[in-house]
Amino acid sequence: MTDQPRKLCLIASKGSLDMAYPPLILANAARMTGREVHMFFTFWGLDLVNKKKINKINISSIGNPAFSMAPYAPWLKIPTWLGMLPGMSHVATWMMNNEIKKLDFPPIPEFMEMIVDAGANVYGCKMSMDMMNLKEKDLIDGAVMLGAMEFMDISEGSNIIFI
């Protein structure tokens, strides 16, 4: 065993509801086991740390070949074209939020706050933020803007997961 602390670096590039929870769950588990955690949010993943968007995360029913009515009707595979119907994204988001509540997971804003309070380091990708005209003040409390090269330095010697 090394003298260095175990370290996990997560790169979150997607901002939909179905892609929000994997990095949050992994970061939480890593902090609970004493690991150092660094989370880098880039492109649409920035929605998860954007003050204006964090409460509006939903799921897209269009173009998701794995989308189904599970657990309500696991036998019903939804054709991707059906996702174009008005309200389908809202229905899918409602369904997934209900399942998340049943598992007793907190909503995304509360989960992010818990992770930051537990000592995880949270970064918004500078290049993506510049592209989207976001400033550091647009990020949730505890998150800072960071460039990719600085993240490379931070992530040296860590386990890296791209989500």
Account of the protein in words:
The protein has 163 residues and is α/β, with parallel strands linked by helices. The chain has a single domain (7-162), classed as DsrEFH-like (Hypothetical Protein Ychn, Chain: A), CATH 3.40.1260.10. The protein has 5 helices and 7 strands, in the order βαβββααβαβαβ. The chain has a 5-stranded parallel β-sheet with strand order 6-5-2-1-7. It is globular.
Number of helices, where a helix is a run of at least 4 consecutive DSSP H or I residues:
5
Q: Identify low-pLDDT runs.
A: none
**How many strands, what sense, and barrel or not for the largest sheet?**
5 strands, parallel
User: Hey, roughly how much beta strand do the residues contain?
Assistant: 15-25%
Helix content: 25-40%
Q: What is the structural class?
A: alpha/beta
Task: Write a concise keyword list for the protein shown above.
alpha/beta, 7 strands, 34% helix, globular, two-stranded antiparallel ribbon, 163 residues, five-stranded parallel β-sheet
